[in-house]
Amino acid sequence: MHSIFSHSALALAALLAASPALAAPCSDTGSNYEAWKPVMAQEAAAAGVGRRGIDALMATGYSSRTIAADRNQKSFRYSLDKFMQVRGAATIVQQGRARKAKNAQFYASLEQRYGVPAGVLLAIHGMETGFGGFMGDTNVVSAIATLAYDCRRSEFFTPHLLAALVLVDRGSITPASVGAKHGEIGHTQFLPGNALAYGVDGNGDGVVDLMNLTDAMASTANFLARKGWRPGLGYQEGEPNFAVIREWNAATVYQQAIAIMARQIDG
């Protein structure tokens, strides 16, 4: 297992720091999206994005479905009990235990390398995509470009857009790659910037492919380890590693649910 993206992430960060302040005008409607694309393309090129990435950006369309999803994240406002019920926590725990038992050596090897217990990885995998059952139906580059164009969180998503275009340049995703409504990729739904920075080649084939289960699980463990996971310490709310679960998702009920399900999976 090794990272082939860490140098790319550092290079992208350096290019972003060196380039002028991002100036492509955001908008709360899709009416100016086509005029925005060439302005954003100039900024992407200045940040070091290559021809394939620029072409992918120019081929995007405004994703109304992404905007609708971004405006309507109701489940994060539920109580913890309601959230866990709606998200199928009991099923995730049951399937997580079965998956851990079936692939015990694999998860043990990840914990040995990264320090992250199987239950945490399996809870995230179950919560994000139902263990790979549904990894999204939205064009990745269009979704991220739409969110970078939209004024609500343009500053947050613009670096992820540049990262997605770098991933296209590298051949890690294509202009046609499909993911979640916010452009997340693969089994555990990495945003492109995180895929670039924390993706690892778990199966040793020389490619980081987050649609591949081994790469996705290794990358998830690597993300948590790099965010400060302390092997052997607790991860429930109030314990040292709960702060690292917060790095995965900003919603409190999500963080609490992952910790509870992970403990139940790990037994």
Automatic annotation (TrEMBL):
User: Which superkingdom heads the taxonomic lineage of this protein's source?
Assistant: Bacteria
**CDD domains xref list:** Slt35-like
Q: Which UniProt keywords apply?
A: Signal
Residues making up the signal peptide according to the UniProt record: 1-23
Transglycosylase SLT domain sequence ranges: 34-235
This entry's Gene Ontology molecular function terms read: peptidoglycan lytic transglycosylase activity
Q: Which GO terms describe its biological process?
A: peptidoglycan catabolic process
Keyword check for Cell division, yes or no: no
Q: What is this protein called?
A: Membrane-bound lytic murein transglycosylase B
Species for this entry: Cereibacter ovatus
